[in-house]
Amino acid sequence: MIHTARFLVSNSSIDQCPKSSLPEYAFIGRSNVGKSSIINALTNNKKLAKTSRTPGKTKLINHFLINGAWCLVDLPGYGYAKISKHERKELKTLIQGYFSKRKQLVNTFVLIDSRHEPQDIDVNFINTLGAKQYPFSIVFTKVDKLSKTQRQNNISVYKSHLLDQGWENVPPLFESSAKTGEGKKEILNYIETINSNL
Ligand code: GTP
Ligand code: MG
Protein backbone atom coordinates (compact mmCIF):
# COMPACT_ATOMS: atom_id res chain seq x y z
CA MET A 1 0.00 0.00 0.00
CA ILE A 2 1.17 3.51 -0.74
CA HIS A 3 0.46 5.88 2.16
CA THR A 4 2.61 8.83 1.17
CA ALA A 5 4.16 9.92 -2.10
CA ARG A 6 6.35 12.97 -2.35
CA PHE A 7 8.27 14.50 -5.22
CA LEU A 8 11.96 14.63 -4.35
CA VAL A 9 14.00 15.95 -7.23
CA SER A 10 14.25 16.30 -11.03
CA ASN A 11 17.63 16.34 -12.61
CA SER A 12 19.60 15.88 -15.77
CA SER A 13 22.66 14.40 -14.14
CA ILE A 14 23.18 11.09 -12.38
CA ASP A 15 25.34 12.82 -9.80
CA GLN A 16 22.38 14.86 -8.66
CA CYS A 17 20.10 11.91 -8.02
CA PRO A 18 19.22 11.43 -4.32
CA LYS A 19 22.23 10.28 -2.33
CA SER A 20 20.21 7.95 -0.13
CA SER A 21 20.45 4.24 -0.79
CA LEU A 22 16.69 3.59 -0.63
CA PRO A 23 15.63 0.98 -3.17
CA GLU A 24 14.16 2.40 -6.34
CA TYR A 25 11.90 1.26 -9.15
CA ALA A 26 12.23 2.91 -12.53
CA PHE A 27 9.69 3.33 -15.32
CA ILE A 28 10.98 3.52 -18.85
CA GLY A 29 9.57 3.17 -22.34
CA ARG A 30 8.77 5.10 -25.47
CA SER A 31 7.68 8.62 -25.18
CA ASN A 32 3.91 8.84 -24.52
CA VAL A 33 3.58 5.18 -23.44
CA GLY A 34 2.25 6.25 -20.04
CA LYS A 35 5.22 6.24 -17.63
CA SER A 36 4.17 9.36 -15.75
CA SER A 37 0.52 8.31 -15.76
CA ILE A 38 1.24 4.94 -14.17
CA ILE A 39 3.23 6.61 -11.38
CA ASN A 40 0.23 8.84 -10.72
CA ALA A 41 -2.12 5.85 -10.81
CA LEU A 42 0.03 3.84 -8.40
CA THR A 43 0.21 6.74 -5.96
CA ASN A 44 -3.43 7.84 -6.43
CA ASN A 45 -2.20 11.33 -7.19
CA LYS A 46 -3.02 12.70 -10.64
CA LYS A 47 -0.68 15.63 -10.18
CA LEU A 48 2.46 13.94 -8.90
CA ALA A 49 4.23 13.26 -12.20
CA LYS A 50 3.59 15.58 -15.13
CA THR A 51 1.75 13.87 -17.97
CA SER A 52 0.97 15.15 -21.45
CA ARG A 53 -0.73 14.20 -24.69
CA THR A 54 2.36 15.50 -26.46
CA PRO A 55 5.26 13.04 -26.44
CA GLY A 56 8.56 14.10 -24.95
CA LYS A 57 7.11 15.61 -21.77
CA THR A 58 9.50 14.03 -19.26
CA LYS A 59 13.06 15.05 -20.08
CA LEU A 60 14.62 14.65 -16.67
CA ILE A 61 15.06 11.90 -14.13
CA ASN A 62 12.39 12.39 -11.48
CA HIS A 63 12.49 10.77 -8.06
CA PHE A 64 9.40 10.27 -5.92
CA LEU A 65 9.73 9.08 -2.33
CA ILE A 66 7.14 6.47 -1.35
CA ASN A 67 6.17 5.78 2.29
CA GLY A 68 9.47 7.39 3.24
CA ALA A 69 11.07 4.06 2.37
CA TRP A 70 11.57 3.57 -1.37
CA CYS A 71 11.42 5.52 -4.63
CA LEU A 72 9.57 5.47 -7.91
CA VAL A 73 11.59 6.98 -10.74
CA ASP A 74 10.06 8.56 -13.82
CA LEU A 75 12.55 8.48 -16.69
CA PRO A 76 12.47 10.34 -19.99
CA GLY A 77 10.95 8.43 -22.88
CA TYR A 78 13.07 7.06 -25.67
CA GLY A 79 12.26 7.02 -29.36
CA TYR A 80 10.78 10.47 -29.63
CA ALA A 81 11.38 11.70 -33.15
CA LYS A 82 10.98 15.44 -32.74
CA ILE A 83 14.15 16.29 -30.89
CA SER A 84 17.54 17.33 -32.15
CA LYS A 85 20.34 14.83 -32.60
CA HIS A 86 22.23 16.54 -29.85
CA GLU A 87 19.33 16.28 -27.43
CA ARG A 88 18.77 12.65 -28.35
CA LYS A 89 22.40 11.86 -27.63
CA GLU A 90 22.23 13.64 -24.29
CA LEU A 91 19.10 11.72 -23.31
CA LYS A 92 20.70 8.45 -24.30
CA THR A 93 23.77 9.19 -22.18
CA LEU A 94 21.54 10.18 -19.27
CA ILE A 95 19.52 6.96 -19.46
CA GLN A 96 22.58 4.75 -19.94
CA GLY A 97 24.35 6.46 -17.06
CA TYR A 98 21.35 5.96 -14.83
CA PHE A 99 21.23 2.22 -15.50
CA SER A 100 24.94 1.65 -15.19
CA LYS A 101 25.57 3.78 -12.10
CA ARG A 102 22.47 3.59 -9.99
CA LYS A 103 23.12 0.82 -7.50
CA GLN A 104 19.83 1.46 -5.69
CA LEU A 105 17.86 0.48 -8.77
CA VAL A 106 16.27 -2.84 -7.88
CA ASN A 107 13.81 -3.24 -10.73
CA THR A 108 12.90 -1.54 -13.98
CA PHE A 109 9.44 -1.60 -15.44
CA VAL A 110 9.63 -1.41 -19.20
CA LEU A 111 6.35 -0.01 -20.46
CA ILE A 112 4.96 -1.20 -23.75
CA ASP A 113 1.84 0.19 -25.40
CA SER A 114 -0.47 -2.83 -25.53
CA ARG A 115 -2.02 -1.63 -28.80
CA HIS A 116 1.03 -2.13 -30.96
CA GLU A 117 2.99 -5.00 -32.40
CA PRO A 118 6.51 -5.46 -31.05
CA GLN A 119 8.67 -2.48 -32.05
CA ASP A 120 12.43 -2.82 -32.54
CA ILE A 121 13.23 0.09 -30.28
CA ASP A 122 11.50 -1.59 -27.30
CA VAL A 123 12.75 -5.06 -28.05
CA ASN A 124 16.32 -3.76 -28.41
CA PHE A 125 16.00 -1.97 -25.11
CA ILE A 126 14.68 -5.13 -23.43
CA ASN A 127 17.50 -7.18 -24.96
CA THR A 128 20.07 -4.71 -23.66
CA LEU A 129 18.67 -4.86 -20.13
CA GLY A 130 18.71 -8.64 -20.35
CA ALA A 131 22.26 -8.80 -21.68
CA LYS A 132 23.44 -6.64 -18.78
CA GLN A 133 21.40 -8.75 -16.35
CA TYR A 134 19.50 -5.79 -14.98
CA PRO A 135 16.27 -7.04 -13.39
CA PHE A 136 13.18 -5.85 -15.20
CA SER A 137 9.53 -6.57 -15.84
CA ILE A 138 7.22 -5.56 -18.66
CA VAL A 139 4.06 -3.52 -18.23
CA PHE A 140 1.58 -3.42 -21.08
CA THR A 141 -0.10 -0.04 -20.82
CA LYS A 142 -3.42 1.45 -21.97
CA VAL A 143 -5.24 -1.89 -21.93
CA ASP A 144 -8.51 0.03 -21.54
CA LYS A 145 -8.19 0.91 -25.22
CA LEU A 146 -8.42 -2.72 -26.37
CA SER A 147 -11.05 -5.42 -26.42
CA LYS A 148 -10.29 -8.52 -24.42
CA THR A 149 -9.51 -10.52 -27.54
CA GLN A 150 -7.23 -7.87 -29.02
CA ARG A 151 -5.42 -7.59 -25.72
CA GLN A 152 -4.87 -11.33 -25.35
CA ASN A 153 -3.76 -11.56 -28.93
CA ASN A 154 -1.29 -8.66 -28.73
CA ILE A 155 0.24 -9.91 -25.51
CA SER A 156 0.66 -13.43 -26.78
CA VAL A 157 2.28 -12.07 -29.96
CA TYR A 158 4.66 -10.11 -27.75
CA LYS A 159 5.54 -13.14 -25.63
CA SER A 160 6.28 -15.23 -28.71
CA HIS A 161 8.38 -12.43 -30.13
CA LEU A 162 10.49 -12.33 -26.95
CA LEU A 163 10.90 -16.08 -26.97
CA ASP A 164 12.03 -15.82 -30.60
CA GLN A 165 14.73 -13.41 -29.44
CA GLY A 166 16.29 -16.26 -27.53
CA TRP A 167 14.82 -15.52 -24.12
CA GLU A 168 14.35 -18.76 -22.21
CA ASN A 169 11.58 -17.32 -20.08
CA VAL A 170 9.64 -14.17 -20.49
CA PRO A 171 10.13 -11.65 -17.66
CA PRO A 172 7.19 -10.92 -15.31
CA LEU A 173 4.39 -9.27 -17.30
CA PHE A 174 1.73 -6.86 -16.09
CA GLU A 175 -1.30 -5.47 -17.85
CA SER A 176 -2.22 -1.98 -16.78
CA SER A 177 -4.50 0.95 -17.31
CA ALA A 178 -3.90 4.30 -15.69
CA LYS A 179 -7.50 5.05 -16.59
CA THR A 180 -9.26 2.14 -14.87
CA GLY A 181 -6.56 1.32 -12.32
CA GLU A 182 -6.21 -2.21 -13.62
CA GLY A 183 -2.84 -3.74 -12.79
CA LYS A 184 -2.03 -1.37 -9.93
CA LYS A 185 -2.51 -3.96 -7.23
CA GLU A 186 -0.31 -6.49 -9.02
CA ILE A 187 2.50 -4.00 -9.62
CA LEU A 188 2.42 -2.78 -6.02
CA ASN A 189 2.40 -6.35 -4.68
CA TYR A 190 5.37 -7.12 -6.87
CA ILE A 191 7.27 -4.11 -5.51
CA GLU A 192 6.34 -5.00 -1.94
CA THR A 193 7.56 -8.55 -2.37
CA ILE A 194 10.90 -7.33 -3.69
CA ASN A 195 11.18 -4.77 -0.88
CA SER A 196 10.47 -7.39 1.76
CA ASN A 197 13.25 -9.61 0.37
CA LEU A 198 15.93 -6.93 0.26
P1 GTP B 1 6.79 11.20 -21.91
O1 GTP B 1 7.01 11.78 -20.55
O2 GTP B 1 6.48 12.21 -22.93
O3 GTP B 1 7.87 10.25 -22.31
O4 GTP B 1 5.41 10.32 -21.85
P2 GTP B 1 4.90 9.31 -20.73
O5 GTP B 1 5.33 7.93 -21.07
O6 GTP B 1 5.22 9.80 -19.36
O7 GTP B 1 3.31 9.35 -20.98
P3 GTP B 1 2.18 10.09 -20.13
O8 GTP B 1 1.99 9.41 -18.81
O9 GTP B 1 2.43 11.55 -20.11
O10 GTP B 1 0.89 9.74 -20.99
C1 GTP B 1 0.79 10.08 -22.36
C2 GTP B 1 -0.66 10.16 -22.77
O11 GTP B 1 -1.27 8.86 -22.70
C3 GTP B 1 -1.51 11.07 -21.87
O12 GTP B 1 -2.44 11.74 -22.69
C4 GTP B 1 -2.20 10.08 -20.94
O13 GTP B 1 -3.44 10.56 -20.44
C5 GTP B 1 -2.41 8.88 -21.85
N1 GTP B 1 -2.42 7.62 -21.07
C6 GTP B 1 -1.44 7.15 -20.26
N2 GTP B 1 -1.77 5.96 -19.72
C7 GTP B 1 -3.01 5.66 -20.19
C8 GTP B 1 -3.91 4.55 -20.00
O14 GTP B 1 -3.64 3.57 -19.29
N3 GTP B 1 -5.09 4.60 -20.68
C9 GTP B 1 -5.43 5.63 -21.50
N4 GTP B 1 -6.60 5.57 -22.13
N5 GTP B 1 -4.61 6.69 -21.70
C10 GTP B 1 -3.42 6.71 -21.05
MG1 MG C 1 6.40 11.34 -18.75
Q: What's the layout of helices and strands?
A:
Blueprint: E1 5-11, E2 24-29, H1 35-43, E3 61-66, E4 70-74, H2 85-101, E5 105-113, H3 120-131, E6 136-141, H4 148-164, E7 173-175, H5 184-196
Parallel strand pairs: 2-4, 2-5, 5-6, 6-7
Antiparallel strand pairs: 1-3, 3-4
Bound molecules: guanosine-5'-triphosphate and magnesium ion.
Please tell me what the overall shape is.
Answer: globular
How many DSSP helices? 5
- Got a strand count? 7
- Quaternary class: single chain
Report helical residue fraction: 25-40%
Q: Outline the low-pLDDT stretches.
A: none
- SSE arrangement, N to C: EEHEEHEHEHEH
Using only C-alpha atoms, the radius of gyration works out to 16 Å
Order the strands across the largest sheet as they lie in space.
1-3-4-2-5-6-7
Overall pLDDT confidence = 94
Strand content: 15-25%
**Ions, cofactors and other bound molecules:** guanosine-5'-triphosphate, magnesium ion
Determine the N-to-C terminus distance: 17 Å
**Based on helices, strands and strand pairing, what is the structural class?**
alpha/beta
Largest sheet: 7 strands, mixed
Account of the 3D structure:
This protein is α/β, with parallel strands linked by helices and about 200 residues long. About 35% of the residues lie in helices and about 20% in strands. It has 5 helices and 7 strands. It has helices spanning about 35-45, 85-100, 120-130, 150-165, 185-195; strands at about 5-10, 25-30, 60-65, 70-75, 105-115, 135-140, 175. The protein has a 7-stranded mixed beta sheet, with helices on both faces. The longest helix has 17 residues, at about 85-100. The structure holds guanosine-5'-triphosphate and magnesium ion. The site of guanosine-5'-triphosphate has 22 residues, from α1.
